[in-house]
Amino acid sequence: MNMRLALSAFVCLLAANAADAACVNRFVSRTERPRQVVTLLTGKLTFQEAQALASSIQKKDSAPLEWLGDDGKVVAKQFGELKIVRPMPVGCDGKTSGVVMIVNFATSSTPQKKMLVKLNADTTVAFEQQAE
């Protein structure tokens, strides 16, 4: 009996660690007039990195975010402020946490199932649509 309990605890511990290791990159979107308001959940940036990116974009030191099509061409560019909402407990690539942020794209096109977003010159992230 004790062996079963110990084995069950071990399996649960492994499952929890595997869940923690999963990289989360999801989005939800809504249309507001001629633009898409997209909420991005990503573990590719920490909260602090996202705040620094938003500040850099606002000062025009960095390029705005870009929504890319499957062919790598720009569908739309960020319009207005990049809003950094809150930290997220799941990180990617060795980061301990991620971030939730809201971006406006100047387009009436609606993202479907998958969305590629270029965060900076070195980082393009594939986001999956969050199930509703």
The beta-strand count equals 8
Q: Quote the average pLDDT.
A: 85
Helix fraction bin: 10-25%
Shape: globular
Number of helices: 2
Brief characterization of the structure:
The chain is of the alpha+beta class and 132 residues long. 24% of the residues lie in helices and 39% in strands.
List the helices and strands and how they pair.
Layout: H1 2-21, E1 25-32, E2 35-42, H2 47-58, E3 66-68, E4 74-77, E5 83-88, E6 98-105, E7 114-120, E8 123-129
Parallel strand pairs: 1-8
Antiparallel strand pairs: 1-2, 2-6, 3-4, 3-7, 5-6, 7-8
Describe the fold and architecture.
The chain is α+β, with helices and mostly antiparallel strands and 132 residues long. The protein has one domain. The protein has two helices and eight strands. It has helices at residues 2-21, 47-58; strands spanning 25-32, 35-42, 66-68, 74-77, 83-88, 98-105, 114-120, 123-129. Strands 4-3-7-8-1-2-6-5 form an eight-stranded mixed sheet, with helices on one face. A hairpin with a 2-residue loop joins strand 1 (25-32) and strand 2. It is globular. The model is unreliable at 1-20 (pLDDT under 50).
